[in-house]
Specification:
mainly alpha
């Protein structure tokens, strides 16, 4: 599913429960509905403001909290989106099963592949639970979840490939640095006989820097003792 298709699908899923939760605060309901409208019109910044106003009036309105996260996701502000999505699953773990998949996708976009796999796996394990366990969203998101399940294995493989590639690149960089360092020492010793002879002489092995030369004397900034 392309990112631009998400708002309509997700709003259709959690609109009903959002209204049920907001019914005790008419103004929060008004802001929430305005946020939905703006989101469907792809005015994400306006939608964000309206959802934020709804949450200010009714902090337990998880549907509006999800709307905030979705707006940030559409604006490609992934860390902010992740913050609000994680707040939902911490506050109401069974608010939405599909949300665990979305969190996995954001972690993948942020390059945090281990965490992405963890949430993808959690989304898969939750399929063993009945839809009704996730309130109204469990039933309304069934079609959305089926689409996520079609992409799940491919996304997990992509995470694993990305981690393997990252490890490979790190090993290559490490080996390149060692090779360059070794080559540099070889060049110095090969073409600088004075350095080679000095470093290989018995005197060089016995030489130790004096404390006077390297310690800072209280009366001078050069590290050398003042002349008598």
């Amino acid at each position: 599913m392309q990112l631009k298709q998400l708002p309509l699908v997700i709003l259709l899923c959690f609109s009903a429960i959002g209204m049920a939760l907001a019914q005790h605060n008419p103004l929060a309901t008004e802001y929430y509905q305005a946020g939905e409208s703006a989101l469907l019109q792809k005015d994400y910044k306006k939608a964000l403001r309206r959802f934020q106003q709804a949450v200010e009036l009714q902090p337990e309105l998880m549907a509006a909290e999800r709307g905030i996260g979705l707006c940030y996701e559409m604006l490609k502000e992934y860390p902010a989106a992740l913050t609000h999505y994680l707040k939902i699953v911490e506050t109401a773990p069974k608010f939405s099963r599909a949300l665990y998949y979305q969190i996995g996708e954001i972690y993948f976009k942020l390059g945090l592949y281990n965490k992405a796999i963890a949430y993808f796996d959690q989304f898969r394990r939750m399929q063993l639970m009945e839809d009704i366990s996730f309130t109204v969203n469990g039933e309304k998101e069934r079609v959305l979840e089926d689409q996520f399940l079609e992409k799940l294995e491919g996304n997990i493989r992509a995470c694993q490939i990305s981690m393997d590639t990252s490890k490979f690149n790190q090993n290559v960089r490490s080996q390149t640095w060692v090779a360059a360092s070794t080559a540099g020492r070889t060049i110095i010793f090969r073409f600088c006989p004075i350095i080679r002879n000095c470093c290989s002489s018995p005197a060089a092995a016995m030489w130790k820097p004096t404390k006077t030369f390297f310690s800072v004397h209280p009366r001078t900034a050069t590290g050398m003792k003042p002349a008598p």
